[in-house]
Amino acid sequence: MSEQNSHPEALTAKDFKSDGPVKWCSGCGAYSILNAVTSTLPRIGVRKEDVVFVSGIGCSSRFPYYVKTYGFHGLHGRAMPIASGVKLANPELNLWVVTGDGDSMAIGGNHFIHTLRRNLDMNVLLLNNKIYGLTKGQYSPTTPFGSKTKTSPDGTIEHPFKPGELTMGAEGAFYARVIDTDPKMMKEVFYEAALHKGTSLVEVLQNCIIFANKVHEEVTSRDVKEDNTIQLQHGKPMIFGKNNDKGLILDGVKLKVVKIGENGISKEDILIHDAHNPDDTLHYMLTRMTLPELPLALGVIRAHKAPVYDQLMEEQVHQAQKHTKIKCLNDLLNSGETVKK
Amino acid sequence: MCSKNKVVELDDVIIKFAGDSGDGMQFTGSQFSDTSVNEGNDLATFPDFPSEIRAPQGTIAGVSGFQIHIGGKDIHTSGDLADVLVAMNPAALKKNLKWVRDDGIIIIDIDNFDNKHYKKAGYVEDPLNDGSLEGYQVIKAPITSFTKQSVKGLDPKVALKTKNQFVSGLLYFLFNRNMEQGKHFIREKFKNKPNLVQANIDVLEAGFHYAETIEAFHTTYRIISADKKGSFRNVTGNVAAAWGLIAAAEKSGRKLFLGSYPITPATEILQELSSRKHLGVKVFQAEDEIAGVASAIGASFAGNLGATSTSGPGLSLKSELIGLAVMTELPLVVVNVQRGGPATGLPTKPEQADLLQALYGRNGESPVVVMAATTPGDCFHAAYKASKIAMEHMVPVILLTDGYLANGSELWNIPDVDNLPNIKPPLAKANDSNYAPYRRNPETLAREWAVPGTEGLRHRVGGLEKEDVTGEVSHDALNHQIMVKYRQEKVQRIANYIPEQSIVGSQNGGKLLVVSWGGTFGAVFTAVTEMRKEGKDISLAHFDYINPLPKNTKEVLSKFDQIIVTELNNGQFVNYLRDNFPQYDYLKFNKIQGLPFMIYELKEKFNEILEEK
Q1: B186 located within any domain
Q2: Of B157, B187, B294, B452, which is the most exposed, with the fewest CB atoms less than 10 Å away?
Q3: CATH number at residue A113
């Protein structure tokens, strides 16, 4: 297992490709996500030894075995607290969590919201295929209402989560949504997520070819994709559609699709995307948009610079060490009320 | 008047302070403890409080107690029966009278002994006149009214909070204590509330002068100083455990990371370490018990000494993650402060009923090291040793303490960190071309600790079964059996690195061997040594290493005609011994009342067995 030190600049995707076999189903959406990740890693300027992947349980959570970095395949739902410990122990590490909609929305739901509100510096890829894949086809917390699965033969009777809404509700500072059929978008967004300081939550709409095939079809199929989605870019007007002639405006307290050139609407009337706005009201509305009235929002929806937990902890430790006379345990043991006999 | 009093020297004395949860009994107890340390006494304390923060005033449920045992000889427990009981109200009297020596002193706040309070405490008759206090020396002190008088002008609610100082003053007189120590304690505690300093000192003095003036105390006492040599301080088990973890981090060159969640009675470990950032300690208060231990395992993977603190219900929640630490073979220290169970059980009361959970409470073949601390001060050394084993053997260690050790305190001989045994974790070397994640040290069977960030050691660990040596995921049948055996053998071999089991008493065997473990040490040790002085053929083997057991355990057990296992549960260690050494017969003595053993009840039981023969 000999390997030489390589400077971050000299790294290529090959440096992060695992030597062993990748064992996802043939045709699984995870392959393109893995490729987008391995081609993003050389671009972010970190040593390959400083990259750590942590995961929970599920198909997506096999990810650490397929990237050649330090890796920790945890337990169902527990990726985020394991990753929090890794990051706090060594804040220099470049940390990635890969999780799924079962892993992070159900059994790890509690950890999901608390990790986001703390805002530790890590990149979380939430591979959302809206089904339990590894246990073979039971509904998940993101499965659409009424879906027939192995555990809902008559259709689900519970309302699904939108991971983005949970992110905002949990004071999350970074949220993006991408689809597994668009490698270019994934690479751009993963790169932005990696550079963002804080917990960057990227929801990847992923296809499970076996148990929920085409679950994302209305936003991935070529003929409707451009009309049914909007790719948001910070500072750019919210324009979309095959002919680039549709846009979003605020109509009272609701978002509304308008056609540029119709009813006196011009480009200037269209909302400009401000991902950096600390106020998440509009980000939340964008996250909630659903077909058929509104397109599905993709890209970086929110990227607000908020205080980062691991940096704050380092700072508190640093300050405490600077201002104390008690420098080691012997000092502490012999301070305060002691008697010598 | 003071000069007329007779001063009697005492070897030791047991005082119990009892009052409403808001009466400041814990404060007074701590104050008296600190003073005793300064006056050179040995001591042991035991706070006994309800889990409710402020239960209704005057009721039995609201009674909070603090027992202190001070003396000149070696003090090993907070004592059986109190020589002095302070009862701030009838409920405190009713709850504690059975724990007072027959001719003991009872100091009551007479202002609270009226029909209203009798009713709240559930007294039908006036306890002062129904004969129930016959034989005791009862001091009826007007504590509330005199306190009010001495701090006139103070907000009445605040004034009442100082009445514990009246009690302190009384006792400072009764035991000829240095009042300056008491005042110093007040100044330190109210450093940030200077307006309360004078009021408390005034009341303290009022209590002292009251005792001096009334002629109730014909005799006052002086407790002889202990002849222990060295540097000492008063320490609780929880604080000692926290410091032991810090010591282990310092000696190993690893940073300490505690991932934890508040739970009675373990919370003080989390609190103590939270205020030790100046020693480089990182503390993560997680969203739940699971996240606490998960973060500790993550930190351990990244090269820190990962630790978590908890109590029984929390240990249940952590079970699966501890299994993950078994599989990933990472260091992890779990300090489990036992309380009465199951479920929420008795949150503030000690019990030893998590032993089997610690040993077996996980899925699969999942051996971990299980150890126990013996006294509040020993929690330091136990936490240190647990950390040393965890790091050097790459294994999770569960350290069992209990509510008695955790909140109790003792006079503690301050160790020198420089003199503690070295800790050498098996860190993998950068760019080691032979590195394999599950390559093992042939002696210990520990794998190497390859820390992220190190060049040339990128690897992956996880909860799936590992292939021998390579650590790749493996579902191979024979490999699983090999790995299960490795994990078991690794823990067993730790027996080569721990001391042999010692015997207190007859080294070559005899009639009766008492076997105990963990926090019952003080009571069992005192009972056995007292009985030996009385000429009884009785010895003690007190265990602090439970898995693995010391190598000579079988030999120790084989030397005695009879073995009795005493523990604060329904018989867990005894079953463990039966399982390991079925060739011996075991008697058992169990107490499951959320209370520590009393020395007298142990002696009674042991004598009964000796007399049967």
Answers
A1: yes
A2: B157
A3: 3.40.50.970
Q: What are phi and psi of B552, to 5 degrees?
A: -95, 15
State the residue range of the domain holding B268: 232-498
Are B415 and A49 a contacting pair at CB < 8 A? Answer: no
The number of distinct structural domains making up chain A is 1
Q: Residue B481 pLDDT more than 70? A: yes
From the list B229, B277, B302, which residue is nearest A317 (CB)?
B277
Written as six digits, the tokens of B83 are: 């020589």
Q: What integer is the mean pLDDT of B226-253?
A: 94
Please give, rounded to a whole number of angstroms, the shortest distance from the CA of A61 to a CA of chain B. Answer: 11
Q: Is residue B503 part of a domain?
A: no
Q: What is the pLDDT of residue A6?
A: 59
Q: Verify whether the Cβ–Cβ distance B294 to A82 is below 8 Å.
A: yes
Q: Which of B205, B223, B241 is the last residue of a domain?
A: B223
Say if residue B5's pLDDT is above 70.
no
CATH code for the domain of B176: 3.40.920.10
Residue A33 maps to a domain? yes
Distance in angstroms (rounded) separating the CA atoms of residues B272 and A330 = 16
Q: Other CB atoms closer than 10 Å to residue B424's CB: what's the count?
A: 12
Chain A, chain B: beta-carbon pairs less than 8 Å apart: 222
Q: Are residues B174 and B242 in the same domain?
A: no
How far off is chain A from B537, nearest CA to CA, in Å? 36
d(CA B367, CA B319): 12
> CA-CA distance, A240 to A227, in Å (whole number)?
7
- Quote the pLDDT of residue B157: 87
Domain count of the fold of chain B: 3
Which of A49, A87, A321 is closest, CB to CB, to B278?
A: A321
CATH number at residue B284: 3.40.50.970
Q: Which residues contact B371 (CB under 8 A, 6 or more apart)?
A: B382, B385, B386, B389, B397, B398, B399, B400, B544, B545, B546
Q: What is the pLDDT of residues B551-588, one digit of tens each?
A: 999 999 999 999 999 999 999 999 999 999 999 999 99
- Of B223, B240, B261, which closes a domain? B223
Chain A residue with Cα closest to B380: A333
Task: Provide the CATH number for the domain around residue B530.
Answer: 3.40.50.920
Instruction: Please state the rounded mean pLDDT for residues B366-379.
Output: 98
Q: Choose the closest CB to A75 out of B243, B255, B463.
A: B463
pLDDT (0 to 100) of residue B613: 57
pLDDT at A3 over 60: no
DSSP-derived 3-state class of residue A38:
helix
Non-local (6+) Cβ contacts of B120 within 8 A are: B56, B57, B58, B59, B90, B91
At residue B214, φ and ψ (nearest 5 deg) are: -70, 155
Tell whether A31 is covered by a domain.
yes
Q: Do B247 and A110 touch (CB under 8 A)?
A: no
**Domain membership flag for residue A140:** yes
Q: How much is the pTM? A: 0.96
**Residue at A226 is within a domain:** no
* CB contacts, 8 Å: B473 with chain A: 65
Residue A89 to residue B306, Cβ atoms within 8 A: yes
The answer on B218 and B170 residing in a single domain is yes
The percent helix, strand, coil of chain B (3-state, each to 5) is: 40, 25, 35
pLDDT higher than threshold 50 for residue B164: yes
Are B354 and B444 contained in the same domain?
A: yes
Burial pattern B452-477, b for ≥16 Cβ within 10 A else e, equals bbbbbbbbbbbbebbbbeebbbbeee
Stretch A170-188: mean pLDDT: 97
Q: The domain containing residue A20 runs over which residues?
A: 8-215+308-314
Segment A39-96, tens digit of pLDDT: 999 999 999 999 999 999 999 999 999 999 999 999 999 999 999 999 999 999 999 9
